[in-house]
Each structure stands twice: as C-alpha cells, then as structure tokens.
Amino acid sequence: MTISRRNVVQGIGLAAIASTGLARPALSQGMTKVTFTTSWIPEGPNLFAYVARDKGFWKKHGLDVSVARGSGSGAAAQAVSAGTFDFGMAATPTAIVQAARGLPITCIGQINYDALMGIGVLAGSSIKTPKDLEGKKLGASVTSGEYPFLPLYAQKSGFDMSKVNLLQIDGKVRERSLIEKQVDAVSSFATSTIPSLAPLGTDLRFMLFRDAGLEFYGQSLTTQPARVEKDPKLCAAFVAGAMEAIKFTMTNFDEAVDIFLKANSEVAISSTGKAYSQIGLGLTNLTNLVPEVKEHGFGYADPKKVSTMADLVVQYAAGDKAQKPDTAALFTNAFAGTVKLAPEEAKAAETAAAPYRKYVV
Predict the structure, then answer these.
(1) Staple partner for 171: which of 17, 72, 141, 359, CB 3.0–4.6 Å?
(2) What pLDDT sits at residue 29?
(3) What is the pLDDT at residue 53?
(4) Distance set, CA 250 to CA 91, 172, 310, 335 (Å)
(5) pLDDT exceeding 90 applies to what percent of the chain?
(6) b vs e for 219-255, b when ≥16 Cβ sit within 10 Å of the residue's Cβ?
(7) Cα angle vertex 316, ends 310, 321, to 5°?
(8) Entry pTM
C-alpha cells in the first residue's frame, strides 16, 4: 500500500511513539550521534540548543548531539533538506518558503511563537507611527526573513511604501547603520537588533508587524520527511530534549544564560555579552508565553495559524511558481505536548521574562 507523506506525518501520533515509554534510543545501546544546525549565530532564539546539549537534556534521551551554528534560516533549511544535518531550526516563514519551492522538509516542533519582525528606530526618532516612515530612509537586507513582507506591512499599517526611501544594506552592518544615523529606521527581527544595541546604551523602539495583524511564528525544529517516517522514535527523543531545554530556559533563566556563555566564549568575553544573552533570551521567552504552550504544551503549532501563515508566505515571499504546501504534512504535532508548564512554573516564567517586555510593547 502506498503511504503518502501527509498520511505518514498525521498517522504517527503520540500513541504510536509512546508505546516504548518516552520513545528514545536505549542508553544501554550507547548514545546515538545526531547533528543539528541552528539558523544563526549564538543568540536568544537558539540558546536552548546549548542548554539541551550541555545540561544533558538530549543525553538523557540517549542522544549525543553536535550543535553547529548557522548562517541564515534559508541555508539551514536547505542543509537539513539535503541531509547535511539530521535536524535543524529555521524561521517558520522560511521553512514554509522552502516547502513551497519543493524542498523535502517537515517542522516537528515549534521553538517560539512570534518572529518579532518589525521596524526599529532610535528612541528619540521623529518616527512615531508607521505613517512617519514616508520620506525617511529605511535600511533593509533583501536576505532577511521579514523583507518580503514590507509591502504587506505598509498596506496593513496605512503608509505608502513608494514614498519610503528603501536602502539595501548588508545585515551585518544594519545595526551600525542605524546607530550612525545613515538610515532613519531598519527592518529586522527584534530578537537580533535589540540585544545587539540595547547593551550599548542605545534605546530603541520597535514597530512590530504583529501590531498590524501580521502574525508569524518564530523558529521551528526541522528534519526530512523521510526521517519522520523511518525513525519517529529518534524524532520524538530529539524534540523532547529540545522542549525540556526550552522549559528550563524559561524557569531557570540565570542558569540557562550561564550555560550559554560557557558554551560560547566569544560572547562571554565581550563587555556586553551577558546583557546580549539575557535580553535575547528574555525576548525569546516572552514569545513562548502563549495559549499554544499553556493549553497544549511545548512544541505545538496551531493548524489554523499555520495555514494562514502559509497563505501569506506563498503570496508574498515564495516566488511566482511556488504553491502552498500541504500544511498538515509540513507541520506535525505528533511529537509536541510531552513537556508542559505547571501553573507555578508558568508564573515563574512570566516573572523572569517581565523585565524584557518593555522592548516590544
């Protein structure tokens, strides 16, 4: 009998996985070596990976995971699809783009729930509303994940994109361009720009895409559809370790930051490294204080939200020949929900993340 990719992903289910307890390789058989790539340099959204590796969350599930730093969500998604890495992480809109273009990729667990895409300006800027961008210089990188959605953001928030002086800049100098006032505003992910500039004493304001009704999930765990079909136990073990680490970062904030700094000496030796790590993690944790996690547990992706995101991605970011992927096959909740926050843990997570809410309100 021929089994479709969609049937495989939908049919795995937690019941099948749970038939072995918490599906994981037996420790007595030795550790299973697994390769994983983040989507970017060490920062808040991928901090959990270093915790999962060095705190032993993956190890307790029988996995010896190597963590490679990425150079962008697109490259990470392509590398995972090609089998260069067993697992990876990518910005959710980027994963949808790659699937729409025909790459074999499946999202097996949601890492965070708001991409925090937006327009950043200096605190003292005369730009108070999106409409104020007209006539101003907006720095943007064409390779950045939020870039394709600028026209839609303009439409939704009521300004004329043709009246904005859009300057193409390299993502590596984006923040510096804003500080040096070469541009009046930058288009970026708040989780990257704010931690880079706030520790330097640079006060920022962010106008987020979500405030205009454009809600995109942040990062997803990814793998090849064939791996989900052939080795669901491995996928379950990998996701479980990752989600336990994400929960730990939310309930043991300071220790999580310390683990991250020990794992990334180049961040630790910087005079702003600790603040960079704290702000990045604080912003990331805020995006996980959502109904999906509270009601269904870590990793769960709302099918309706996923379908809406896919419609927007295909229309604005995937290219003329792209087709909307089967979101039931692209996103699976088969491995989600095994890790949850108890009420007292949720309260502790809210308290730890509260100081960082000021950056994105």
Answers:
(1) 141
(2) 61
(3) 98
(4) 20, 29, 29, 20
(5) 83
(6) bbbbbbbebbbebbbbbbbbbbbbbbbbbbbbbbbee
(7) 85
(8) 0.88
